[in-house]
Design brief:
By secondary structure, the protein is an alpha/beta fold. Helix content is 39%, strand content 12%. The chain is built from 14 helices and 10 strands. Strands 7-6-5-4-3-2-1-8-9-10 form a 10-stranded mixed beta sheet. Helix 1 runs parallel beside helix 2, helix 7 packs parallel to helix 13 and helix 13 crosses helix 14. The longest helix is centred in the C-terminal third of the chain and has 41 residues. The protein binds iron/sulfur cluster (2 copies).
């Protein structure tokens, strides 16, 4: 069962909000969201009103469980101006019921300044900064509408955020060009102080020729090699068996190897666990499915929990588990889960199989033994931690356990073969 889900009901725990709709102050070649202007033609400028913001925050805070995350995205959400986010935080405080609230801001960084940075730091926003790598890689596709490169500005803004103590993740699109430079990108990010990295493979339908993927999309073969190189770089940086850089995809996959639900929706069996809220309050199934077919309602008219649990959203979530034939017999299915639904339909030549299928096969073949070893080490550390906590408790309470007695941790094994032996192993 996924977190936040009872047998029959999902709880609101994650909303992805697009306060400026598809509006953006950049014109990246590979952007999939700029075209969404066509869906909101009533105006050429799209901004969330205070009424929509208040209705959204009030509903989320009154219906969410103990933890909730607002992800502010776009388009470019900073086009709303800082005062909008100050109002959002004030509303979260007004309508909160003692919950822990997280805010994530995904931005191209261009509008950030010292005032933004101190606000983001004060309210512990986690910033996902779009940065594809060093200048020749970033500026390949991430340009202004006038064709100007943005790398120099974005890296200046990154420094501003880091100096203010803001937690910043580098979000990098892996495209037909950048895929050749796994090591250069990894080293660039590390040197720029980004220990948290997220890589998003790009596949979009070619608007001029809808029977194939656009030329900036990354091929599966190249992406497979990129992932293997990146994995080796990540692994080489481990110290004392633990990673020193965080790569979201690898950490997410690791969750599956230790029997936990991965945080990345693309690696779960089903999706549909969050909602997208557009600037006008319209609700959609997923960032990649802001389409009339997957419009679920509006925050001014509908109850968010009801929408999240609606038949339509459940049907959307189930699309992911309708797997094409090759996935059903695939040895990597338990970890790959067939990948993101969107990646199965952007290039019609894939015929319903994930565009990155061969990349995943190459990657899992390469990384699987390492993941198993890491999982084994993790389990041992966890068991040692539990044993140590139990021994401390026994010392504090004066409880004595014989070597042949059942272990008090409840494993059913004898103490000498369970937590006692972990102590010996740890001491040796
Ligand atoms: S379609 Fe992809 S991105 Fe959207 S919720 Fe499903 S797995 Fe996640
Ligand atoms: S590797 Fe390919 S065949 Fe296997 S589960 Fe993933 S997408 Fe399906």
């Amino acid at each position: 069962m996924l977190p936040g889900r009872t047998e029959s009901m999902k709880t609101i725990q994650d909303v992805l909000v697009k306060p400026a709709g598809p509006d953006c102050n950049m014109a990246c070649t590979y952007c999939f969201y700029l075209d969404k202007q066509d869906l909101f033609q009533e105006s050429s400028v799209h901004r969330m009103s205070d009424a929509v913001l208040e209705a959204l925050v009030r509903q989320v805070m009154s219906q969410a469980g103990q933890q909730v995350v607002f992800g502010w995205q776009g388009g470019e959400p900073t086009l709303m101006g800082l005062d909008f986010f100050k109002r959002a935080v004030a509303l979260q405080q007004r309508y909160g019921r003692g919950q822990s609230v997280g805010n994530g801001l995904q931005t191209n960084g261009l509008l950030l300044d010292a005032t933004w940075s101190s606000f983001l730091s004060e309210y512990s926003f986690l910033v996902g900064l779009s940065l594809d790598g060093p200048e020749h890689i970033h500026d390949r596709y991430r340009r202004t509408s006038g064709g100007k490169g943005t790398w120099a500005t974005v890296t200046d803004k990154a420094k501003l955020l880091q100096d203010a103590g803001v937690a910043v993740n580098a979000l990098s699109v892996v495209n037909s060009y950048s895929v050749q430079f796994a090591e250069e990108i990894y080293v660039h990010h590390k040197q720029a102080g980004f220990d948290f990295m997220q890589f998003i493979p790009c596949v979009e339908t070619d608007p001029a020729e809808p029977t194939r993927a656009a030329s900036f999309s990354v091929s599966s073969e190249a992406y497979g090699s990129f992932l293997c190189q990146l994995f080796d770089l990540w692994l080489n940086d481990f110290v004392d068996g633990k990673p020193t850089t965080s790569i979201r995809m690898f950490e997410s996959i690791f969750h599956s190897y230790v029997g936990q639900v991965p945080p990345d929706c693309g690696l779960r069996k089903q999706c549909g666990d969050y909602l997208v809220v557009e600037h006008n309050g319209d609700l959609f199934s997923c960032d990649f499915f802001v389409e009339p077919e997957w419009k679920l309602g509006n925050v001014l008219e509908n109850n968010l929990s009801a929408v999240l649990n609606s038949e339509q959203q459940t049907a959307f979530g189930c699309l992911k588990s309708k797997l094409p034939g090759p996935c059903e017999t695939c040895e990597w299915l338990q970890y790959c889960t067939g990948g993101c639904t969107k990646d199965r339909i952007r290039d019609p030549r894939d015929q319903g199989l994930n565009h990155f299928c061969s990349a995943y096969q190459t990657f899992f073949k390469h990384a699987d033994p390492h993941f198993h070893l890491l999982a084994e080490q993790w389990r041992l550390r966890e068991a040692e931690g539990r044993a140590s906590a139990m021994r401390t408790q026994m010392e504090q309470t004066g409880v004595k356990v014989g070597r042949n007695d059942p272990c008090p941790c409840g494993s059913g094994r004898q103490f000498k073969k369970c937590c006692s032996s972990l102590r010996s192993a740890g001491q040796n």
